[in-house]
TrEMBL record:
The organism's taxonomic lineage, starting at the top: Eukaryota, Sar, Stramenopiles, Oomycota, Saprolegniomycetes
Protein name: Non-haem dioxygenase N-terminal domain-containing protein
Domain of life: Eukaryota
Coiled coil start-end: none
Gene3D superfamilies, sorted: B-lactam Antibiotic, Isopenicillin N Synthase, Chain (2.60.120.330)
Length: 236
């Protein structure tokens, strides 16, 4: 009779927290930035007291379930293979470890503007960046205003975080190997969470570091998770 191997215990770790007002006033948050994104940080910074965040979340995120439970025939109308599914509905189009990822459904759009350019050449040549947004207006009319409202708030807050990170772009090289421990981040309720990517790690010479991460599902059925992830990058 075989015995199941015991799963290693996962320890918890509190994330660094900064108040929105401190960011908005341009205060020096260097210590918090280093604690969050430095070589020994978790790679996560939580922003507390973001204005109107709870209202906008409550308006937007439940609509994800409405979109996901539309019929396959309807959802196919909002797929955009020509843009590599970077806009509209995507399910099983992305790969995870070389296999189609059917564990999540995504609805992608630009939260900053519905139509980033009028240049047809740019839209055709770089559809993943410049294609106009696609909305299921007939089926879920509330999605567009709710998505854009929450997305813009996340961008505005993220820019305040990025401004704090700018102070490290010209710094010298300082690299310290991380221990590689796996921890569960304890994120306070009602906070916005920001991570940095590889470009920030390169630009800061390794002082601020990107962190590999994954979402682990619950061990029960009947539970779903809705999030709005906003990816911010430099202008092209």
């Amino acid at each position: 009779m075989s015995q199941e191997q015991a799963q290693p215990a996962i320890r918890t770790a509190n994330v660094s927290v900064v108040d929105y007002a401190t960011l908005a006033q341009g205060g020096d948050c260097g210590a918090l930035i280093e604690a969050a994104f430095g070589p020994d940080g978790l790679g996560i910074l939580a922003v507390a007291n973001v204005p109107d965040i709870e209202v906008r979340r409550a308006r937007c995120l439940p609509l994800a379930f409405k979109v996901a439970t539309l019929s396959d025939e309807v959802k196919q109308k909002y797929e955009l293979g020509s843009a590599y599914y970077s806009f509209g509905w995507s399910h099983g189009k992305e790969s995870l470890q070389g296999k189609p990822d059917f564990s999540k459904g995504s609805y992608y759009n630009n939260p900053r503007t519905n139509r980033p350019t009028e240049d047809e050449h740019l839209m055709t040549t770089f559809p993943t960046m410049y294609h106009p947004n696609i909305w299921p207006t007939d089926e879920v009319p509330d999605l567009e205003p709710a998505f854009m409202s929450l997305g813009q708030l996340i961008i505005d807050t993220g820019l305040l975080v990025a401004k704090q990170c700018d102070a490290y772009v010209e710094a010298g090289l300082y690299i310290k190997t991380r221990r590689g421990d796996i921890v569960k981040a304890v994120i306070p309720t009602g906070h916005l969470v920001f991570q940095i990517g590889e470009s920030s790690q390169i630009l800061t010479g390794g002082i601020l570091q990107a962190t590999p991460h994954a979402v682990r599902g619950p061990q029960v059925t009947g539970v779903n998770r809705e999030t709005l992830a906003v990816f911010m990058s430099v202008e092209h």
